[in-house]
Amino acid sequence: MTEIPDFDALYRAEPDPWSVRTSPYEQRKLSITLACLNRPRYVAAWDPACGVGELAFRLADRADRVLATDASAEAVALARQRCADRAGVEVARSRLPLPSAWTGLDLIVLSEFCYYLEAADRRSMLTMINSVAADNAEVLSVHWRFKPHDGWLSGESVQREIAGGLRRSGWTQTTHHLDTDFILDVHRRSSA
């Protein structure tokens, strides 16, 4: 059985436990993530499991509104600090599902956290995405290819699961990027 990490303890011990702001891997992945977005501008973006807020900070250049959420109070405090001068960024402590006030999202980024969710929670997340996404929304998912020692499955497995779940709900894959270290997919929801 996998024991999910205590993320608050991780962030208390090291304010950037995955070196998102300094690691060449993280910086390259973030650049490729932003380059793979299909539109220059979005109305409302969601960055669940936002961590230190680096992605939310950069999404503010591409979206009118950005919601950055994390279940960890420590991560939320760090993300709020990082995004303090970014207009349109709201950082909130939230576990899935998303607060009902946020619907009509046209960009949802699932970055490096889905392998920490149990199977039922991953299925629930896909159902919730369908309920909060706008008709023309995009979902970008990106995960490290391998299995974290404290995760439920590998990034490759979680990416296949996300792609299959979205496809079954009528989403179309527009981008697939297979990297040495990570996998990135973009899916678009067709207008009803």
Write up what this structure looks like.
It is built from six helices and seven strands, in the order ααβαβαββαβαββ. With 192 residues, it is α/β, with parallel strands linked by helices. It has a single domain (7-189), classed as Rossmann fold, CATH 3.40.50.150. It has a seven-stranded mixed β-sheet, sandwiched between helices. Strand 4 (105-111), helix 5 and strand 5 (133-144) form a beta-alpha-beta unit.
CATH H level, superfamily name: Vaccinia Virus protein VP39
What is the number of domains? Answer: 1
Top CATH class? Alpha Beta
| Lateral arrangement of strands in the main beta sheet | 3-2-1-4-5-7-6
Q: What sequence of helices (H) and strands (E) makes up the elements?
A: HHEHEHEEHEHEE
Main beta sheet strand tally, sense and closure:
7 strands, mixed
Low-confidence stretches: none
Give a quick precis of the structure.
With 192 residues, this protein is α/β, with parallel strands linked by helices. The chain contains 6 helices and 7 strands.
